[in-house]
């Protein structure tokens, strides 16, 4: 009998993986640090190497020094399903065990139920014109599903119309408000209007998660499915009150498998949400391959990155991601990219300075210094909810005295003005 496999080394390599130019422009509003990726390289005594990654400023956890020390000298198979390892280390463990057994990661998770998994192009909040340009690129890249962030300071009806104008008839949109429609009274007319457009597929978190009664009312009045994060509400209450049609499932492999089993028992579809580059997307494909109710388009935000860190790209065609068949994750990491994007401490990027302006058709405008300030103001109910004709502008620091004066005032709180 062969000796048990042992981990001999765990390397941590922090990268600054660039966004595509348009995503860089709009992600700078709130998620600029998603470019900071820690790659974990696990080496065994058999010479096998496994890879994983963690977004240091977003993922469901981090890889601790204690976790690294715990796996050194141990058999990687002993840690399968252990979410306490953190994203990147857990991913690398699955990769190296699959390689040792010469099987794909999906074989370590359960029987495959599909070879191609639905996947969505993802974008943060952006203007209708920018979103339409993203949709053009999505179609060219093989996508037919597109999830984006809707906000009350951008005209969602214009966003949908702009995407419709540049995409084929089978292109579908999933829309996420992060609770910013505030309550059922505000949400019903907005969602009913969007229901009339056959491109719209799913609504995610239109109102805050705790409002179970509001979700119950919404579900009886809108045609499209409602989705919420499975972990964000008491599951038993959601099922008893029939507040949603499906879920967003996220977390470590062990947690995702448990959540997927729960959804299957209650007949609830879900989409997997695991943000990262090619490594994360490959793991997402393996999970989607074995989870029966992972029927909605997964979100990994792969399209936001200018480099997937892989030698050969994953195959995406007709809105579906092919599950890799090779051992482990089934992908080869581009070692040259790891050198090219290597980052030194501190592992964070500076925040871009800008002024964010919302304009309404009646001539009123409000200026903010940071996106977080907008969230606070709009979630407090201080501004209109999803009015038609609202527009959003970004004024990046241009060195002018006018910019500096307005930014200084907006840094102390929202600045109200009239533009006509």
TrEMBL record:
Entry-linked Pfam families: MR_MLE_C
Coiled coil start-end: none
Matching SMART domains: MR_MLE
Protein name (record): Galactonate dehydratase
Gene3D superfamilies attached to this UniProt entry: Enolase-like C-terminal domain (3.20.20.120), Enolase-like, N-terminal domain (3.30.390.10)
Native source organism of the sequence: Thermasporomyces composti
Domain Mandelate racemase/muconate lactonizing enzyme C-terminal: 128-225
SUPFAM superfamilies noted in UniProt: Enolase C-terminal domain-like (SSF51604), Enolase N-terminal domain-like (SSF54826)
């Amino acid at each position: 009998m062969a000796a048990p496999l042992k981990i001999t080394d765990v390397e941590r390599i922090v990268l600054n993986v660039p966004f595509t130019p348009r995503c860089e422009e709009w992600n700078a509003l709130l998620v600029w640090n998603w470019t900071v990726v820690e790659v974990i390289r696990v080496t065994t005594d058999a010479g096998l190497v496994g890879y994983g990654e963690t977004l240091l400023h977003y993922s469901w956890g981090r890889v601790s020094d204690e976790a690294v020390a715990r796996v050194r000298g141990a058999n990687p198979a002993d840690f399968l399903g252990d979410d306490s390892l953190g994203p990147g280390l857990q991913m690398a463990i699955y990769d190296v065990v699959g390689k040792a057994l010469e099987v794909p990661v999906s074989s370590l998770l359960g029987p495959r139920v599909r070879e191609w998994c639905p996947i969505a192009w993802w974008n943060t909040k952006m203007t209708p014109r920018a979103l339409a340009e993203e949709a053009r690129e999505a179609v060219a890249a093989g996508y037919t599903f597109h999830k984006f962030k809707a906000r009350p300071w951008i005209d969602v009806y214009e966003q949908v119309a702009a995407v419709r104008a540049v995409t084929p008839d089978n292109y579908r949109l999933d829309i996420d408000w992060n609770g910013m429609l505030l309550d059922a009274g505000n949400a019903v007319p907005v969602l009913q209007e969007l229901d009339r457009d056959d491109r719209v597929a799913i609504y995610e978190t239109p109102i805050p998660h705790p409002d179970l009664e509001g979700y119950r009312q919404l579900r009886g009045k809108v045609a499209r499915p409602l989705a919420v994060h499975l972990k964000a509400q008491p599951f038993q209450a959601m099922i008893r009150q029939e507040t949603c049609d499906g879920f967003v499932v996220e977390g470590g492999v062990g947690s995702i498998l448990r959540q997927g089993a729960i959804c299957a028992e209650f007949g609830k579809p879900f989409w997997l949400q695991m943000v990262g580059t090619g490594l994360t997307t490959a793991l997402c494909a393996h999970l989607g391959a074995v989870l029966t109710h992972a029927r909605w388009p997964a979100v990994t935000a792969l399209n936001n990155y200018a480099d997937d860190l892989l030698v050969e790209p994953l195959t995406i065609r007709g809105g579906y991601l092919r599950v890799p068949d090779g051992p482990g994750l089934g992908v080869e990491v581009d070692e040259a990219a790891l050198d090219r994007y290597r980052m030194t401490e501190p592992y964070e990027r500076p925040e871009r300075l800008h002024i964010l302006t919302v304009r309404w058709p009646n001539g009123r405008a409000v200026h903010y210094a940071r996106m977080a300030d907008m969230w606070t103001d709009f979630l407090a109910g201080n501004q209109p909810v999803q009015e038609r004709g609202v527009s959003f502008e970004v004024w990046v620091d241009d060195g002018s005295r006018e910019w500096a004066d307005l930014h200084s005032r907006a840094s102390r709180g929202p600045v109200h003005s009239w533009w006509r």
